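We emphasize that the prediction below concerns an isolated chain of 644 residues; any contacts that depend on oligomerization or on bound cofactors are therefore not represented. The input was used exactly as deposited, without trimming of termini.
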Amino acid sequence: MPCPGPTGGSVATERTSDTVDTLESMCGIVGFVGSGSSGTQALDVVLDGLRRLEYRGYDSAGVALQTAQGLVLEKRSGKLGCLESALADDPPPPATTGIGHTRWATHGGPTDANAHPHLAGEGRVAVIHNGIIENFAELKAELVAEGVSFASQTDTEVAAHLLARAFTGTGDLGEAMRVVARRLEGAFTLLGVHADVPDTIVGARRNSPLVVGLGDGENFLGSDVAAFIGHTRQALELGQDQVVVITPHGVEVTDFAGVPVEGRRYVVDWDAAAAEKGGFPSFMAKEINEQPHAVADTLLGRTDPAGRLLLDEVRMDESVLRAVDKIVIIACGTAAYAGMVARYAIEHWCRIPCEVELAHEFRYRDPVVDGRTLVVAISQSGETMDTIMAVRHARELGARVVAICNTHGSTIPRESDAALYTHAGPEIAVASTKAFLAQITACYLLGLYLAQLRGTKAQAEIREILTQLQAMPDKIQKVLDGLGQVRQMARWMADSRSVLFLGRHVGYPVAMEGALKLKELAYIHAEGFAAGELKHGPIALIEPGQPVFVVVPSPKGRDPLHSKVVSNIQEINARGARTIVIAEEGDTDVVPYASDVIHVPAAPTLLAPLVTVVPLQVFACELAAAKGLDVDQPRNLAKSVTVE
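Result of the prediction step, given as a token string:
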């Protein structure tokens, strides 16, 4: 993406030419305060953090630095390189305190004026913000009536002017932020600096992520630990409705009323190298190839010497879990498809009715849940706002909530009754791959644990399923080692305008996930259908040359649906479709009707998604790359949806 033409300089004024009405849904926040003794420059730390947060998706970037000459600000629409070029053309003075931001707008165009930071107080205050301030219009009207001029029409600038006004009244930056936070409605993470308060950054969070990085003579703030993982792995968890003040030598946390709060310290269990591409052409390619490890690590240490499941993270009374009479899985996007796979396994193993709900619909349909309902919330980041609000609603109704999440210390696990962490490591690419397999694996573990507690499966049966699960990483690796055919096919099909996906039973959510990956990465029409629905309408889409992926169950004799799906293949083949069949090794029944066959290792029916989805991930990634698209940062998408 080329950088737009320059519209401003690097002093603490916003010399930009364009403003657009917009509410903010931003993605990346970094803050750094150092003592200067190490020679570390704030600009270097902040830019490094923003680079590590690029995976979240963004459309503009900016920094504000505390210098001897006052606040220095630079911001640009476009990619981070545009900001870096502007800084190189007009280098700022040295600074050991700075904040940085990458913005993703939900409304309005990405412009220099709407980029962060925003200034107030005659250029002496700078603020960055993630989230949406729902009452910004009335607050802005109040400020305008007082004679305040606005350089943009974002909700964030309202917070900047409020902070400047509050500081004038209090003389204390932490108290000023508390005054502001109490007036704001909605979801927000705010970071602010003031020219009159050197070596200090203040932050606030409500319904939006913020974490503290703890260093020696330096401290950090970030919307994600990736923002500072290159400098420290020591972190401090911030809770809901809290304000933090960091200096080079201290961290102070209070609630919005000013009552001191003791944050929970933890150690980030991955390092900066884990966030690098490791020789792969993209983060997505790397993460697809990390899937055997993601599944193996999620399974690691889950049993005692006798082979019984021990889910130490699920600290919920066993009597409560035995009394559960309904399970509701809530999630969005790829995580929802993981939940759909899990539903088949949980109902089969536990004999408990299980529903899968899109989190953003759950609380608006008056769901029937109570104290005997177990809600399972699935989220890679733990900060998906739709799912957070659904979790809160479920708990208000008396349900117990178990979170399945990849991010320690994030909001959803903290606000749930129990958590089961996946151990997939950082997922940088916006489109999820290894988190999907890890989520399915964690759901299997939860289902087996419930079956163990409730006695619906004999212990020997549970041990056998666990043995089969432990064999899956090697089978996933075997799939990855044999996908040259898929990569070549993707390059041949780079000009396809539409691709359909069919599956039955657990193959149905796999088909939908395959379609979603292609939509996300290649920007072409793709749909996943239940194969049994084919003759109820979708077969009208079949025309000569139409590519159709079909996920085939295990051969007949092991799965009664096999012959039915083979009949589907015959039907679409007879109408001229290009049938691309994913079938188990040794399945010869599909060969006469398939244009292409992609073989995967044999696996029990309920575990098969762990291998059958992998070729679809690789196909989408390769086809998008063949089209010259950025597979790590698809257009219009962000890694975590942190607003409803």
